[in-house]
Amino acid sequence: MNKATFSTLLAIALVPACTWVKETPGGDKVRVAYDGNVSGCRDAGAITVSVTDKVAFYHRPDLKVRDELETLARTQAAAIPADTIKPSSEPADGSQTFEAYVCGSVVVHQRQARPAAATADEAETHAIKDH
Fold first, then answer.
1. pTM score, two decimals?
2. Strand, coil or helix: what is 64?
3. Which CATH class is domain 32-105?
């Protein structure tokens, strides 16, 4: 066996052990509603994620692809911000769609309301420059 063939076989043998998607600090706090129960939660939007499911002729293990898709979805949900995700489709060709929800542990920062315009009785005037 020549060196190039050995290197190629070694690389293919090691690919299943690779995890290309890492957990993020915000994503590790996002819950996955495996049972689909999101009652009492507010819809925060849809998330579509994708990973490599095939390297050359090698198909990566389904469980590893699913795990990476979930990790990516949790990371994106944290950025929305949302605290819960629920799969809305099965993985296909390395892609999957999730629904994101706010179920209570995330505080959504909203813009502060502008102060109401002053009425004529409340208006104040100030001189811009003295004459």
1. 0.65
2. helix
3. alpha beta
